[in-house]
Amino acid sequence: MSLDHTDRRILQVLQKQGRISNAELSEQVNLSASACHRRVQRLETDGYIRNYVALLDARKMNLPATVFVEITLQSQADELLDAFEKAVARIPDVLECHLMAGTADYILKVVAENTDDFARIHRQHLTRLPGVAQMQSSFALRTVFKTTALPV
Questions:
Q1: Which residues are bridge partners to 70 per DSSP?
Q2: Would you kindly state one Gene Ontology biological process term found in this protein's UniProt entry (predicted)?
Q3: Residues 48 and 42: beta-carbon distance below 8 Å
Q4: Could you tell me the residue range of the domain that residue 120 belongs to?
Q5: How does pLDDT run across 82-99, given as a tens digit for each residue?
Q6: How many helices (H) and strands (E) does the chain have?
Q7: 37 and 86 share a domain?
Q8: How many CA atoms lie within 13 A of 3 on its CB side?
Q9: CA distance to 16, 42, 142, per residue, from 150 (Å)
Q10: Three-state DSSP class for 73?
Q11: What's the mean pLDDT in 97-112?
Q12: What percent of the chain is helix, strand and coil (3-state, nearest 5)?
């Protein structure tokens, strides 16, 4: 399925206002409520809309520290990559894990209460990941810009 202008407008609005009512959404995209509802259902069924979530404030959740961790593995063997990816997915403090091309094999985005909490995460979880040869951590001083909205 290809997206037309109306589909894209629906996606733009829903990315910023996920709890908007169908009536309000239909007004914003100039469709009848029933046509709008059908389009949203189709976008969900076709996988353009994966889920609806609440975005929490990390500071209010007492997790103000963001740490980016570059990890280099001992090898690129499929079994090791699979084992690493399964293990890292089980660490609740890791928000993102990206397989990279470049100097590191993976980059993780980790949240923590402070440096002591990150030391705990590092000691109890990150150092125990399979196949880790080297790790380098960088603390974000301030988040300048952050969005979850994809360009549509």
A1: 107, 136
A2: response to amino acid
A3: no
A4: 65-139
A5: 999 999 999 999 999 999
A6: 5, 4
A7: no
A8: 16
A9: 10, 19, 22
A10: strand
A11: 97
A12: 35, 20, 45
Which residue in the block uniquely carries the two structure tokens 């629906």? 10
In a domain, residue 26? The reply is yes
Sign of CA dihedral 43, 47, 48, 49: positive
Provide the domain count of the chain: 2
β-pair partners for 66: 111
How far is residue 86's CA from residue 66's CA, in Å, rounded to a whole number?
Answer: 22
Which residues lie across from 65 on neighbouring strands? 112
Instruction: Find the helix or strand (DSSP H, E) in which 112 lies.
Output: strand 106-112
Tokens of residue 84, six digits: 């690493």
Note the pTM of the prediction, 2 decimals: 0.91
Residue 51 lies in a domain: no
pLDDT band at 109 (very low <50, low <70, confident <90, very high): very high
